[in-house]
Specification:
The chain is of the alpha/beta class. The protein has helices spanning 13-24, 40-46, 52-60, 73-83, 98-101, 136-152, 170-182, 195-204, 216-229, 267-280, 283-299, 313-321, and strands at residues 2-9, 31-35, 63-68, 88-94, 105-111, 121-123, 128-130, 157-162, 189-194, 211-214, 237-241, 246-250. The protein contains 12 helices and 12 strands. The strands form 2 sheets. The protein has a 10-stranded mixed sheet, sandwiched between helices. The protein has a two-stranded antiparallel sheet with strand order 6-7. The longest helix is centred in the middle third of the chain and has 17 residues, at 136-152. Bound molecules: 1,4-dihydronicotinamide adenine dinucleotide and magnesium ion (MG).
Amino acid sequence: MYNIAVIPGDGIGPEVVKATTTILDKIPVEFNYTYADAGDECKEKTGEPLPQETLDIARKSDAILFGAAGETAADVIVRLRRELNTYVNLRPVKSLQPDKYGDIDFMIVRENTEDLYIGDEELTDEGAIARKKITRHASERIAKYAFNYAKETGRSKVTGVHKANVLKLSDGLFKESFYKIAEEYPDIEANDFYVDATAMYLITNPLDFEVIVTTNLYGDILSDEGAGLVGGLGMIPSANIGDDNGLFEPVHGSAPDIAGQGIANPAATILSACMMLDYLGENEYARKIENILIDVIREGKDVTPDLGGNSSTQEMAEAIASRL
Ligand code: NAI
Ligand code: MG
C-alpha cells in the first residue's frame, strides 16, 4: 500500500486529478490517498496558499500527486519543489500521435531548485531587481542526472542549454559544469546550444533532441514550447524527484479559460501518475495505463475537444478505466 498525498489545487486541477484517480482506482495496487489543500482558493479560505499541514502530509507520503495552482503557483508548487528538495524536474516531450506530430521524443531535465526561481526580488528606486542563483553543486548534480538518464534509457546524446554568451558567470558555470560531467560519460555525445537558438531548433529540428538539460527558467519555457510540438499542454506530464520525495504534476497550470467546463484534457495528469507508478516501482501498471491512453487518443473517439473529440474530462478517463 502506498500513501499518496493528493493536492488538487485550483481551476482544472481538481478535474484532471479526479479523472486520474478514477483510473488509478482500477489497478490492483492499493493507494491510501490523503487530500490536502493548496492554491488560490486555499489562500482565500485560510490566508495561506500552502498551509503547514499540507507540507507535512506531502513530506510523510510515499509520493505526491498535484493538479495545478493559479496565481499562487510560485508560493505553492515552486515552494513545494524547494521544500521537498526535488532537485530534478523531468518533462518528457513525446508525441503520442506520430502521424500528426512526427516521432518527437525527448526528455527535458530541468534544474528545479535555483536560478531566478529562488524568488529573490527587491524593489529599488529605479524599479526592481531579481537575483539569479547558479551553484556548481546543483549544476553538476543535474548534469549527472541527465547523463545517467541518457545511459539508462539508451539515449545517445545530451544537450546542455544556457545563455552563457550573455550571463557569462552564472550560465557560464552551468555550461562548464555540464562539460565537466560529460567527461565521465564518453559513450554519450554532449553538445550545447544557447536557449534562444534552442527555441528555434525545437521547431525546425525537433528530432535532433534526445535529452535536454537546462536551468530552471529555460526548462519551464522550453517545456511549454515542447507541449506545443505534440498537441498542447494537456499532453505533457512531469516528475519532480529528489532523494526523499517524488511529486508528480502536469506541466500545465489551472487554465482558468476552460476551468469548470469539464473539458480539460486529463492526459498530462494521467501520464504524471504513470511517472509516479514508475517511481514507486509499479512499472507494469504504468505501461498498461500509458498504452491504453495512447490507444484511446489515437482512436480519437473518447477524447476531449483539444484532441478533436467531444468527450468530457471524466468521460475520457472512464473510457481508459473501462479497459483496465
Ligand atoms: P495554463 O497552463 O493554465 O494554460 C495555458 C493554455 O493551455 C490555456 O489556453 C489552457 O486552456 C490550455 N490548457 C492547459 N491545460 C490544459 C488541459 N489539460 N487541457 C486543455 N487545455 C489546456 O497557463 P496560463 O494560462 O499561463 O496560467 C493560468 C494559471 O495557472 C496562472 O494563474 C498561473 O500562475 C498558473 N500556473 C500554474 C502552474 C502550476 O501549478 N504548476 C503552471 C503554470 C501556470
Ligand atoms: Mg510552466
